[in-house]
Amino acid sequence: AQSVAQPEDQVNVAEGNPLTVKCTYSVSGNPYLFWYVQYPNRGLQFLLKYITGDNLVKGSYGFEAEFNKSQTSFHLKKPSALVSDSALYFCAVRVNYGGATNKLIFGTGTLLAVQP
Amino acid sequence: NAGVTQTPKFQVLKTGQSMTLQCAQDMNHNSMYWYRQDPGMGLRLIYYSASEGTTDKGEVPNGYNVSRLNKREFSLRLESAAPSQTSVYFCASMAGQGGMGNQPQHFGDGTRLSIL
Hints:
- The complex is a heterodimer of chains A (116) and B (116).
- With 116 residues, chain A is mostly beta strands.
- Chain A has no helices and 12 strands.
- Chain B is mainly beta and 116 residues long.
- Chain B starts with a strand and ends with a strand.
- At the A-B interface, β5, β6, β10 and β11 of A face β5, β9 and β10 of B.
């Protein structure tokens, strides 16, 4: 079965420290991977994606993610966390069922809490 | 630049009542999606429309119907609301279809629905 896993419900980090939010996936074929962020009472906002090419992908707000095919992982990272980064983060993988049918499978989300 | 607009933002219904959630996008996107978000479960796909004139079931379609009214609008209807349908509902749209599924989805800010 095709799936995405975010093993941590919550990640706590001090402001200024590096952060990592973990994601692993299971899909057939080459994966298209995405990270989204959700602030309170808002919809999801796109952060970055991996389609092909360099394993290190840079995105919005200073975030980056590292694609690791052998470990089937796509962890989200930031060198120096800000309090304003506190939000809910979702990893997602695109699944294609042929033709025009493209859907995203989402992980269950990881709440990032950055302490001042 | 409105993006994806959902109405209403909040709604309280009694069991058995019906209602329609509205969604409109102004980005000329082909694909549109309805998700529900429940604590600890991430986002689950209810229905989607890969292009104007087509709709298909997602992961959790029971108790819902959809209409792709035109390219801009994609509505979700609850015919007979049940407490299990209490959730936050998100509409999303995406450019392209088929092999262009590497584009990010754009989300509305959600409709918070409570069924008593």
